[in-house]
Amino acid sequence: MKIVTPKQMQMIEERSEEMGVSRKKLMENAGKALAEIIDKYCRSSSVPPEEKSIVFLAGKGNNGGDCFAAVNILVYRGYRITIINVGGKPSTDLAKEMFLRLPKEHIEFIDGYRSESVDAAIEAAELDYMSIPKTIELEKTAKKELNPLEKILMQEKLRMSLVKSAVLGASVIVDGVYGTGFRDNLDKNAAGIFAIGSSAYRIAVDVPSGGNSVTGTVAFGAFEADETVTFGYLKSGMTQYPLRKYCGKITVADIGIPKGAEDVLDGERAYYRIERNHLASFPPRRERDSYKGTFGTLLVIAGSSSMRGAASFAAMGALRTGVGHVKVASVEKCIDTVSMLVPEATYIELECDDNGFMLYDINKNALFNAMNSANAIVIGCGMGVTPDTAEITRFVVENAKCPVIIDADGINCIASDIDILLGKKSDIVITPHVGEMARLLSCDNAMISNNRIVVAEKYAEKYGITVVLKGAGTLIANSRVTAANHTGNPGMSVGGSGDILAGIIGSLAAQGCSVYDSACAGVYIHGLAGDAAAEKLGMESMLPRDIIVCLSDSFRILKEKKSAK
Fold first, then answer.
1. CA-CA-CA-CA torsion for 315, 317, 318, 321, nearest 10 degrees?
2. Strand pairing category for 234-235 and 325-331
3. Contacts of 183 (CB under 8 A, 6+ apart)
4. What pLDDT sits at residue 149?
5. Which of 221, 299, 300, 499 is the most exposed place for a label (fewest CB within 10 A)?
6. 559 and 436 in one domain?
7. What is the pLDDT of residue 135?
């Protein structure tokens, strides 16, 4: 599925207009698509339209215009419609035009915003906005003359009473307050309306208000949707958490963008969400006359005396995804364990220090020879971080002539000198989680979490590598393309899952797939296996070893997809 940034969406809309499909037509189409989705939801129950109340929270910009275009359809289908203008009256030309078309006599309108004079009055009276009562006893004030301040406060109480009553009585609440341009903080008024408790079905227009559709972050008080109807294309930030959670179910609506309009993005960074149809070549076809050499050799440099499972997981993940031969280079105690769990691999025993970590000088010749016979290399899983393992990582980066996947401690080993990557002789993939990425950039985890897309892209561009930034909505970025994954689940948040992923990516690279395709396919397949394990065992009970067992389910699903075409 193609993804765009908000800026790219603007470029496509401009190109669409040049090709004869105006912005007004796009808005009308967006309104029609939104109306059809609302109508479909409402008609899924036996309650007739005239008993369904649909409340639109409309902003003053083009998101509000989308709402007005939808209202102009739904009102003639018998629904009870209320429009609450949040933030002010329509301000853009298109929003104004859509608003003027509305049959005002059939719609209830409520001002959902406060004037500056009301804000000043409330501040002066130290009135808590959210404590305004739902009903007002006007008879208590009818006996005396109200002063100007009291009149303003009374009007504000009435306004909020109407807003709350409408929201609480709604069958569907539609959020069209802010669009994809939202970046900062929600104003208290909008946040207060969003916070009104309601059992209504909540639909967001294009992106939930308060969500940053570039980074995937959300402002405090953001609208939490059951469904988000986004127009034309999925927006990049909607693939990332926490915004992805606030979107609920995501529906991408066709709004009539002409074929070829997206060509305006040629030369721009490309974005997409990994789907099964992107993996048409996976698993690679296995001909009758194939032999183990056909499917490549993967060298896994991993493990230590105290971290033996990591090497096992990487080797098993690789073998379960089809590589012909796995060589594990590690210390004696690690090999003793791995050989019991993965007898299909072969082993290169490396000398270790007193703490059970690999040494550099005495092992570099053995490693060099193994590297020269490998089709891909995985380094770092459970290796530990010492001066020697750092030198081994440098040695591999500077001498490997095949793709190298750097994971876990391999990433930590280059954190103190990240310019090691500039000396690479082959394609490099790094697979950091947020903490490891933060160490690479010498920053805190929050900076990475709040800027996942830009961090992955800039790091990939600077060093000419592929970055797999793990986590919910794992990102795969190289210098030209960014992909977002949607498979996987929280049950995979257990030590060892990442080692399996490194092995899978290395396996696919060793079989001859391009490095970027290996990373994308590896992440998707890994997540698909995790989902299969969660379905069988539950997220609470599944272990990384179950992901390995369920890799066969991943390939079965991919093969079924092929057969269905």
1. 150
2. unpaired
3. 212, 214
4. 66
5. 221
6. yes
7. 45
DSSP lists the bridge partners of residue 235 as 4
**Residue that terminates a domain, selected from 201, 230, 258:** 258
Residue 113 pLDDT: 79
In a domain, 279, yes or no: no
Number of domains in the chain: 2
Owning domain of residue 223: 2-112+173-258
Cα-flanking dihedrals φ and ψ of residue 212, to 5°? Answer: -90, 110
Instruction: Quote the pTM value.
Output: 0.91
First-residue to last-residue Cα distance in the chain: 17
In a domain, 178, yes or no: yes
Q: Give per-residue burial for 496-525: e unless 16+ CB within 10 Å, then b.
A: bbbbbbbbbbbbbbbbebebbbbbbbbbbb
The pLDDT score that the predictor gives to residue 87 is: 85
- The answer for 57, left when phi > 0, alpha when psi is -120 to 50, beta otherwise, is beta
The type of residue at 201 is Y
**Cβ–Cβ < 8 Å for 53, 170:** yes
Q: Do 543 and 490 share a structural domain?
A: yes
Give the per-residue pLDDT at 559: 81
* 408 backbone φψ class: left, alpha, beta (φ>0; ψ -120 to 50): left
pLDDT at 130: 46
Are residues 217 and 359 both part of a single domain? Answer: no
**Same-domain check for residues 494 and 348:** yes
312, 220: one domain? no
Q: Is residue 130 part of a domain?
A: no
pLDDT given at position 561: 65
CA angle 116, 118, 119 (to 5 degrees): 65
**327 and 199 within one domain:** no
* CATH number (domain holding residue 214): 3.40.50.10260
Burial class (CB in 10 A: 0-12, 13-18, 19+), 553: middle
In-domain check, residue 141: no
Three-state SS sequence of 330-392 = EEHHHHHHHHHHCCCCEEEEECECCCCCECCCCCHHHHHHHHHCCCEEEECCCCCCCHHHHHH
The vertex-532 CA angle with 528 and 534, nearest 5°, equals 115
**b/e 21-31 (16+ beta carbons within 10 angstroms → b):** bebeebbbbbb
Distance CA 321, CA 334 (A): 22
CA–CA dist 446, 455 (Å, integer): 12
CB 347 within 8 A of CB 374: no
Element (H, E) at 139: helix 139-142
| Dihedral (Cα; 70, 71, 75, 81), 10-degree rounding | 140
Q: Can you list the residues of the chain whose pLDDT is less than 70? A: 115-144, 146-150, 280, 561-565
Residues 521 and 280: beta-carbon distance below 8 Å? no
Q: Which pLDDT tens digit goes with each residue over 366-390? A: 999 999 999 999 999 999 999 999 9
Residue 173 to residue 281: CA distance in whole angstroms: 43
pLDDT digits (tens, 9 = 90+) for 441-487: 999 999 999 999 999 999 999 999 999 999 999 999 999 999 999 99
Residues 412 and 541 grouped into a single domain:
yes
Same domain flag for 552 and 487: yes
The CATH code of the domain that includes 411 is 3.40.1190.20
Q: Of 238, 258, 278, which residue is a domain's last?
A: 258
Element at 29 (helix H, strand E): helix 23-42
